[in-house]
C-alpha cells in the first residue's frame, strides 16, 4: 500500500512538473526532454530543429550547469572508471542519431550497470542541475536519443540480463538494456516469440522500444506494447525508483502507471526493467511476396487478409517501387523474387499457425482469389526457409 502511495505522489509531481514545463524550465523533469533547451558546453548556444514545416529555435537554458572535474570524480566513484566514457570516438557516435540529422555536443557518456547506479547518477545530476538524455541503441528516427547541447548521455546497455522467464505464462522479465534481437533468439530457443520485431533489432534495446512504443512487423498480429508490456521499473529524474514490475496479466488494482512510460521517450525517467508477455512459437509459417498496381488494391488486400486469413495472419508489409528500387540497387545479394516487370507496389504477407496443410491451403486459396479479383498482379510463395529469409531481407534491410 505504501508503495502505491509513494507512486501516486510521485506521479502527481511528475504530471504537475510536465504541465509546469510549459511555464518554467526550473524543473528536474524538464531536462529529460532533449528537444527543448537543455545543457550546453557553450559551443552552440542556439540550434534550430525543424519538425515538418515548423522550425523551432532552441537555446541552451543557462540555469543548467556544465560538467566539472568534481562531477567526473563522482561518476567514476559510482560507476568505475571504464563506465564513464570521455573517449572522443565513442562520444562522436553517441552524439549523432541514426539518420545523421541531429548532432549533439555531449562530453560524457555514462554506462550504469544496475538500477541503483542509475538512481545515484540521476539523483546527482538533479542536485547539480546537469542535463541528461537517456539513450538506448540510438536507432530512433526522430532525434530523441541524442543530446541537443552538452547533456550527459545515459545508456543502460550494460544492463542486459534476462531476469526470469516463465514457460507456463510466457512472461519474460529482463533488464532494459537487452538488445531486441537477443531477446528474440532467447525466446526462439524456449519455443516462444517476441511480440515485437523490427529492422533495428540488432541494435535497439527493449528499454528504447518501450520508450518509443515501437510497433514493428508483428504489430498486425500482437498489437501495441501497451498490450504486451505487463510491468516496468523506472528511475525518475530525482533518483526515485518506481517499481511497477508486475507480471500479472490481469491487474485491476488501480491506476496503471507503466502506460505513462510507454512511448514517453525518456521524458519521465529511465526505464530499467521490463516484463513482457510473449506468445508461443507456432510451427507452420508461410510467406508470400506479391505485386499490386495501385494503392487502393493494397488497402483492399489488407482488409481481405484480415477477414480471410484471420487468426493466422502474422505480418502484412508494404513497399512502393522507389523503396524496392533502392533495395535492389544498393543491397548486395538481394533480388526481386517476382518477374522483372516493374510493379507499383509490393507486399509481403506472412501467416503463422499450427497446422501446416490447413494454413497453406488457406493462404493459397486467399492468393488465388486475390489474383482472380485483380487485387494482385503477380506473386510467389516461399518454398523453403532460405527463400522466406530472402523475402524478409527485402523488407527489413531497407534500414541500410
Ligand atoms: C531500421 C529501423 C527500423 C525501424 N523500424 C521500426 C518499426 O518497424 N516500428 C517502429 O515503431 N519503429 C521503428 N524504428 C524506430 C524505433 O523507434 C527504434 O528503432 C527503437 O524502438 C528505438 O530503440 P533504441 O533502443 O534504439 O532507442 P533510442 O533510439 O536510443 O532512443 C529512443 C528514445 O527513447 C529514449 N530511451 C531509450 N532508452 C531509454 C530507457 N531505457 N529509458 C527511458 N528512455 C529511453 C531516448 O531518450 C529516446 O527519446 C526503426 C528504426 C530503424 C533504424
Work out the strand percent.
15-25%
What series of H and E elements makes up the topology? HEEHEHEHEEEEHHHHEEHEEHEHEHEH
How much helix is in the residues? 25-40%
In the CATH hierarchy, what is the superfamily of the largest domain? Uridine Diphospho-n-acetylenolpyruvylglucosamine Reductase, domain 2
Low-confidence stretches: 1-45
Ions and ligands: flavin-adenine dinucleotide
Query: Which architecture of the largest domain per CATH?
Result: 2-Layer Sandwich
Examine the coordinates and then state which fold CATH places here, giving the name of the CATH topology of the largest domain: Uridine Diphospho-n-acetylenolpyruvylglucosamine Reductase, domain 2
Count the beta strands.
Answer: 15
The total number of structural domains is: 3
- Side-by-side strand order of the widest sheet: 7-8-11-9-10
The largest sheet, given as strand count, sense and whether it forms a barrel, is:
5 strands, antiparallel
Shape verdict: globular
Q: Give the integer mean of the pLDDT values.
A: 87
Please state the CA-atom Rg, rounded to the nearest Å. Answer: 23 Å
Structural class of the secondary structure composition?
A: alpha+beta
> So how many helices?
13
Distance between the termini: 49 Å
Q: What is the CATH C-level name of the largest domain? A: Alpha Beta
Amino acid at each position: 500500500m505504501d508503495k502505491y502511495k509513494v507512486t501516486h505522489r510521485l506521479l502527481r509531481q511528475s504530471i504537475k512538473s510536465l504541465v509546469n514545463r510549459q511555464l518554467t524550465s526550473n524543473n528536474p523533469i524538464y531536462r529529460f526532454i532533449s528537444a527543448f533547451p537543455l545543457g550546453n558546453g557553450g559551443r552552440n548556444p542556439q540550434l534550430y530543429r525543424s519538425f515538418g514545416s515548423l522550425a523551432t529555435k532552441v537555446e541552451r537554458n543557462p540555469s543548467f550547469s556544465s560538467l566539472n572535474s568534481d562531477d567526473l570524480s563522482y561518476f567514476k566513484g559510482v560507476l568505475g572508471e571504464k563506465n564513464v566514457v570521455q573517449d572522443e570516438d565513442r562520444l562522436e557516435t553517441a552524439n549523432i542519431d541514426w539518420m545523421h540529422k541531429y548532432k549533439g555536443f555531449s562530453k560524457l557518456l555514462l554506462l550504469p550497470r544496475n538500477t541503483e547506479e542509475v538512481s545515484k547518477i540521476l539523483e546527482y545530476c538533479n542536485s547539480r542541475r546537469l542535463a541528461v538524455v537517456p539513450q538506448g541503441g540510438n536507432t530512433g528516427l526522430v532525434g530523441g536519443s541524442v543530446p541537443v547541447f552538452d547533456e550527459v548521455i545515459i545508456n543502460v546497455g550494460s544492463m542486459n540480463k534476462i531476469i526470469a522467464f516463465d514457460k507456463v505464462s510466457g512472461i519474460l522479465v529482463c533488464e532494459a538494456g537487452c538488445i531486441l534481437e537477443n531477446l528474440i533468439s532467447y525466446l526462439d530457443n524456449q519455443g516462444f516469440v517476441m511480440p515485437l520485431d523490427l529492422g533495428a533489432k540488432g541494435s535497439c534495446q527493449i528499454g528504447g522500444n518501450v520508450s518509443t512504443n515501437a510497433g514493428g512487423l508483428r504489430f498486425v498480429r500482437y498489437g501495441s506494447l501497451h498490450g504486451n508490456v505487463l510491468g516496468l521499473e523506472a528511475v525518475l529524474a530525482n533518483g526515485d525508483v518506481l517499481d511497477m514490475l508486475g507480471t500479472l496479466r490481469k491487474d485491476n488494482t488501480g491506476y496503471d502507471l507503466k502506460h505513462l512510460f510507454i512511448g514517453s521517450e525518456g521524458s519521465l525517467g529511465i526505464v530499467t526493467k521490463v516484463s513482457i508477455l510473449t506468445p508461443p512459437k507456432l510451427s507452420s509459417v508461410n510467406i508470400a511476396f506479391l505485386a499490386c498496381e495501385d494503392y487502393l488494391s493494397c488497402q483492399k488486400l489488407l482488409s481481405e487478409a484480415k477477414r480471410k486469413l484471420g487468426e493466422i495472419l502474422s505480418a502484412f508489409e508494404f513497399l512502393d517501387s522507389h523503396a524496392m528500387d533502392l533495395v535492389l540497387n544498393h543491397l548486395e545479394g538481394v533480388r526481386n523474387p517476382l518477374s522483372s516487370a516493374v510493379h507499383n507496389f509490393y507486399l509481403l504477407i506472412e501467416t503463422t499457425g499450427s497446422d501446416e496443410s490447413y494454413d497453406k491451403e488457406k493462404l493459397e486459396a486467399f492468393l488465388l482469389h486475390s489474383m482472380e479479383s485483380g487485387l494482385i498482379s503477380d506473386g510467389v510463395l516461399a518454398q523453403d526457409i532460405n527463400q522466406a529469409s530472402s523475402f524478409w531481407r527485402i523488407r527489413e534491410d531497407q534500414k541500410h
